[in-house]
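Hi V.,

Quick status before I head out on leave. The structure for the redesign project is tokenized and pasted below; the design run finished overnight.
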């Protein structure tokens, strides 16, 4: 019997243009929903989406049929369009050109998902996990 099983878990992070605080707290749920819907539409299993005013984290199981750059391109494009057409009409919402994409072992999925879902707390009083936030330099230097 021939079968294929692919379990590629990826932690994606990307920032708003110039790290400006363009994501308002009361718009987060809708924006995260747009990102989730886009990724699920291409066959990703989205495990967590979260962020703060100037960046977003996504944890997803990515199908073998898509390059990571294509997954991010679609998520950023659709969510940018959503923000400009549905939420921030009349303004120019943009994502930074780069991104970070980091493999996550199956055993680390729950910890990374919990961290992503609690972004506001981590960037507030609790403090950030530098191992999961190291992406700023990588995201600024990465190429789409």
């Amino acid at each position: 019997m021939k079968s294929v099983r692919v379990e590629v878990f990826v932690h994606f992070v990307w920032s708003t243009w110039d790290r400006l605080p363009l994501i308002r707290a009361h718009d987060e749920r809708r924006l995260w929903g747009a990102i989730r819907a886009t990724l699920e539409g291409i066959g990703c299993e989205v495990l967590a989406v979260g962020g703060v005013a100037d960046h977003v984290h996504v944890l997803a199981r990515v199908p073998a049929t898509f390059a990571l750059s294509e997954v991010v391109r679609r998520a950023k494009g659709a969510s940018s369009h959503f923000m400009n057409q549905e939420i921030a009409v009349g303004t120019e919402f943009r994502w930074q050109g780069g991104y970070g994409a980091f493999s996550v072992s199956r055993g680390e999925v729950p910890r990374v998902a919990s961290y992503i879902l609690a972004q506001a707390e981590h960037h507030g009083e609790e403090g950030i996990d530098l191992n999961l936030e190291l992406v700023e330099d990588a995201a600024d230097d990465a190429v789409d």
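Above is the designed sequence. The first strand starts at residue 9 and ends at 15.

G. will cover questions while I'm gone.

Best,
W.
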